[in-house]
Amino acid sequence: MVRAYAQEHTYKHPWERVTSASWRKFADPENKRALSHILEVDTLNRKLDPEAGKLYTTRAVTIHTPGPWFIRKIVGQEICHCVESTVVDAKSRSMQLATRNISLQKFIEVEEKIRYDPHPDNPNEWTVCKQETRIRIKPLSVLASMAEKIEQKCVEKFQQNSAKGREVMERMCKYLEAESKGISL
């Protein structure tokens, strides 16, 4: 079985600020507590296509094993490795991120897609964020008998982490806004 959910959030900040916040959210030490599930983020590759106005980036993201604590005990691993692929299209003002786990795949598959675009009602001042997450516990794994319950617990944990991520993004946007006005927070 696959659990999927979608969320949409409007940031009352321009696209340029929100996408800048997205790049900086993991690097800011004040965000470590809110994003405690993120252990490390490393840039693996970055390519700029000036003619197309696109930036392509691949990052390695190391996180605590997703879901409730007992999953870590069952799979015997505390951490999970993921790959995040990002495309920023400056011409169309769109930023798309796709993240998936590359470890623990015999037990669980998680895929998250996030897209930032100017909000259609106020494109110069607001940004809409659309997030889709898909979680699948492998039916042939040792988790098969509990797959549905585990998937639901994983969804709940991902939704909690998404809310924390939105709080961090809002804080980063306010920081960037103040910075652009020469005010220190």
Automatic annotation (TrEMBL):
Q: Which residues form a coiled coil?
A: none
* InterPro entries, per the entry: PRELI/MSF1_dom, Slowmo/Ups
Ranges for domain PRELI/MSF1: 2-181
- One Pfam family from the record: PRELI
Q: Give a GO cellular-component term.
A: mitochondrial intermembrane space
Q: Tell me the superkingdom of the source.
A: Eukaryota
Q: What is this protein called?
A: MSF1-like family protein
